[in-house]
Amino acid sequence: MALEEYKGVFVFAQQVDNVLDGVAFELLGKGKDLAKDLDTDVTAVLIGSGIKGLADQLAEYGADRVIVVDDPELKDYRTEPYAHALASVINEYKPEIMLVGATAIGRDLGPTVSARVKTGLTADCTVLEIGDFPLVAVPGKEADQKHKQLLMTRPAFGGNTIATIACPDNRPQMATVRPGVMQKIAPIAGAKANIVEFNPGFTPNNRYVEILNIVKAVKNTANIMDAKILVSGGRGVGSKENFKLLEDLAEVLGGTVSCSRAVVENGWLPVDLQVGQTGKTVRPQIYFAIGISGAIQHVAGMEDSDLIVAINKDEDAPIFDVADYGLVGDLNKIVPALTAALKAEMQAK
Ligand SMILES: Cc1cc2nc3c(=O)[nH]c(=O)nc-3n(C[C@H](O)[C@H](O)[C@H](O)COP(=O)(O)OP(=O)(O)OC[C@H]3O[C@@H](n4cnc5c(N)ncnc54)[C@H](O)[C@@H]3O)c2cc1C
């Protein structure tokens, strides 16, 4: 593999039903940072049927070029035609880096494609940066240290440690990235990208599954990744019924209730509301952590919130290490008092 032939940062721009997934914009934001460090540009790979119209949106969020693979076979996501499309783009355009969102589609597509183009993939990354590999040169083997590598960081061993992984001998360097972790840029209205149409040809075979029916789940839970204020509860809330205290606080603040995994495991709230390593990564303006101990797997999903307020009866709870404001005491007393005070404040205005 001639590594020097591989250039540019590529981002898989996931769309479903002609609507781009937010993670596509987040990856473009990160892709721009990486491209700057590598002195290269960012290409979005848009795959689907009748989707060319989405290219301008990708330009507004930072794509310098959009490669469009448009074919009726790509109308709904299926592993085989999508993997063929993306692997063909990689073989033709030889990117140095290929980023895919760690969505249900991306988790299927990314590894399939990496195997096909014979490179490695680091799944579920939370940090991506350009740097040296090994991070510190081995004494006496300084010349072996490689520069300008993609350093891909992700939780490992059940979240008990953080691993930084590189792919120095193969290209592209591939990663899937958790939605909500990277930041999109402020859109540049009217920005235009260089649009390239590419169709590798699709010949259905026995791996082209036939979709008989698509049943869409009706969601009646809020998308906690979009919330500006989250009132999050943990096992300390004590019961499903007691979440009423948090709902009242959220209502006064115009916020949304979310929770720790312990709450989901107890069946008090649905998994859609779980924050953390195996839940959602959130970045609200205010995050209330109420009766949440602050386990590393929870903190991984909320530590980038602008302001963190923790309420816990244990003054040594690790959540206070990441909190901007901490209240030590019984949530059953503090939360209703806070709600009442905020209500009174608002009525006085
Ligand atoms: C691979 C893996 C992935 C995981 N992923 C996630 C994840 O995505 N999200 C997640 O949240 N966890 C995750 N976990 C679980 C995580 O390790 C913790 O077990 C979990 O976060 C604990 O939830 P908690 O803080 O609600 O409960 P606890 O740890 O039991 O904490 C309850 C807290 O409430 C406080 N409290 C109790 N009563 C009151 C009261 N009356 N007033 C005030 N405070 C009170 C206690 O002092 C305590 O600090 C994961 C674990 C593993 C191994």
From TrEMBL:
Pfam families: ETF (PF01012), ETF_alpha (PF00766). Binds 1 FAD per dimer. One of its GO terms (molecular function) is electron transfer activity. SMART domains: ETF. Keywords: FAD, Flavoprotein. It comes from the Bacteria. FAD binds at residues 235, 260-261, 274-278, 291-298, 312. The keyword Methyltransferase does not apply. One of its GO terms (biological process) is fatty acid beta-oxidation using acyl-CoA dehydrogenase. Its cofactor is FAD. Residues 9-211 form the Electron transfer flavoprotein alpha/beta-subunit N-terminal domain. Belongs to the ETF alpha-subunit/FixB family. PANTHER family: ELECTRON TRANSFER FLAVOPROTEIN ALPHA, ELECTRON TRANSFER FLAVOPROTEIN SUBUNIT ALPHA, MITOCHONDRIAL. This is Electron transfer flavoprotein subunit alpha/FixB family protein.
